[in-house]
Amino acid sequence: MNYGFVKVAAAVPHVKVADCKYNAGQLESLIAIAEGKGVQIVTFPEMCITAYTCGDLFGQQLLLEEAEMALIQILNNTRQLDIISILGMPVVVNSTVINAAVVIQKGKILGVIPKTYLPNYKEFYEQRWFTSALQVAETSVRLCGQVVPLGTNLLFETSDTTFGVEICEDLWSTIPPSSTLALQGAEILFNLSADDEGIGKHSYLCSLIGQQSARCIAGYVFSSCGFGESTTDVVFAGNGLIYEDGRQLASSERFSMEEQLVISEIDVERLRAERRINTTFAACKGNLPADRKPIRIATEFVNSKELNLTRNFSMHPFVPKGKALNERCEEVFSIQVAGLAQRLVHTGAKTAVIGISGGLDSTLALLVCIRTFDKLSLPRKNIIGVTMPGFGTTDRTYNNALSLMESLGVTVREISIKEACIQHFKDIAHDINVHDVTYENSQARERTQILMDIANQTNGMVIGTGDLSELALGWATYNGDHMSMYGVNSSVPKTLVKYLVKWVADNGMDDTSRTTLLDIVDTPISPELIPADENGEIKQKTEDLVGPYELHDFFLYYFMRFGFRPSKIFMLASRTFNGVHDEETIKKWLFIFFRRFFNQQFKRSCLPDGPKVGSISISPRGDWRMPSDASSAAWLKEIESL
């Protein structure tokens, strides 16, 4: 089972200018290597059979015949290989020469694609030798004794994907042919190129490919000339690049003197999911010319070798690495602050009321309030931090809550909930020694009541602290911590929360606050609703009860962002967390995730407002509109069968 992945390759061969027989041997070798590695489709550079820098030799009959003979040789020698190859060569069409991409499989030519835009400026003079596709009326061509389809509107359909081809300058044009091919159904786009190098050009090229793959919601495989091309006036670095929906998956070593084969897997299932929900992509199909009809070419079954993923997946898809993490934290925090600022200004609220537990989520929410009030030039004393110790509160979290509020200069209120809860247990005849859901939820609802009433007293607004991961799992007490007047953390995943808190700690905090924040980051995640152990340590650890948040955030990302089925998520998680969590553990928590996600939708159906910060939100007014009565049976059945 390939789970929607298509293995592709960008080949950068060593060539000799105008030596077609030598070049054919190099291409055959790379095709064979690619096929052995399970590649289903491999593309080569522009004019790879002759080399791109032949100049006026493209007008020589001998070179044109040698190119065709070389293609015959490649067809014969790769006939038994289970792979589709895309090669570049000059092709004669009705006494003119086109710069062409030739798609072959098992001794057959599937189609020929002419280059549309021929650069004729600066160092390029292609119009001297070639005819543009815009000037070619023919729809078929005889090549190597075969009459084959010819055109820029060819779509090649395999059992796993549909792909299209464009050539070099086509990508640099205002409206690339690949845009039309994508709208007509191409999920992977291949580009045979001969891009020479210049200062700053490579970064622009990567940006161009990334943008085109994102705009087309497609995979994009780019192969450009390398070592062996003439350096009379220009140099070719050998760029093999593979992108998926804006993200680079693999790249070649630039300026290498060795041949290269850049391999990765494009997740076509992911691309299809993106296209299904992107209504703009569908609407753009209406802009296609009525007379522009694609020619669909069926291929034989391609490469049945077992899938061997070479691309890696992050254990923490919400948390980028390196410099990007700081940028992510700054942007998320800024969105939270901007959202809260607008809500405060609009409502005219005089105070922000927030429950401070000494845990990560309430800490982040408090930091958002601090930054918001500072930006609005409001006194921090108008932030009312309320610590509400209960039966499970430990000294560590209690002291951290007080220390943080005092060092940040907010108004501190301490209200124990013990006596109120004891009275409540008496009122409803609940045994205080029975630490069940009633025992726990009573405390959460008592805290929420206190916050709401203080907000009423002070003309204020209760700021919610619950995060995306908790809301996805329904790990919140209905009408308890589930409810607020504005939830600033509502689309921030748990795995990112601690990095946000640490980022704030490292950026402009005083030493006392920073020390407290770092200790909060290291504190186990807990609702602290059950009494501490005999050593006064946290006894009730959330991840022991609902599972590791790193797993749940992984499941959440691929379920909501791309609509993956449980078996695919399980495969990715098993591979990604190998050595960290075994398959039995992953399966256990995957089942819990889907069971809870479906069963707890009723809590998400009435969430308070809160800002969307990333690609995933579970707001019932925005990204996620799911009926509370939806059945999880199909998902759970698939997990059980794993």
Automatic annotation (TrEMBL):
Per UniProt, where does L-glutamine bind? 121, 201
The active site of this protein is located at 46 (proton acceptor), 115 (for glutaminase activity), 168 (nucleophile)
Q: Which reaction does it catalyse?
A: deamido-NAD(+) + L-glutamine + ATP + H2O = L-glutamate + AMP + diphosphate + NAD(+) + H(+)
Residues at which ATP binds: 355-362, 465
Q: For this protein, what is the EC number? A: 6.3.5.1
Tell me the keywords, alphabetical order: ATP-binding, Ligase, NAD, Nucleotide-binding
Give a Gene Ontology cellular component term annotated to this protein. cytoplasm
Q: In which pathway does it act?
A: Cofactor biosynthesis; NAD(+) biosynthesis; NAD(+) from deamido-NAD(+) (L-Gln route): step 1/1
Q: Name one GO molecular function term.
A: ATP binding
**Domain CN hydrolase, chain residue ranges per copy:** 6-268
Q: Which InterPro entries match?
A: C-N_Hydrolase (IPR003010), C-N_Hydrolase_sf (IPR036526), Gln-dep_NAD_synthase (IPR014445), NAD+_synth_C (IPR041856), NAD/GMP_synthase (IPR022310), NAD_synthase (IPR003694), Rossmann-like_a/b/a_fold (IPR014729)
- List residues binding deamido-NAD(+): 441, 470, 475-478, 603
Q: Which GO BP terms, alphabetically?
A: NAD+ biosynthetic process
Q: Briefly, what is this protein's role?
A: Catalyzes the ATP-dependent amidation of deamido-NAD to form NAD. Uses L-glutamine as a nitrogen source.
- Family note: In the C-terminal section; belongs to the NAD synthetase family.
The name on file for this protein is Glutamine-dependent NAD(+) synthetase
Q: Which organism is it from?
A: Jilunia laotingensis
Q: Top-down, what is the taxonomic lineage of the species of origin?
A: Bacteria, Pseudomonadati, Bacteroidota, Bacteroidia, Bacteroidales
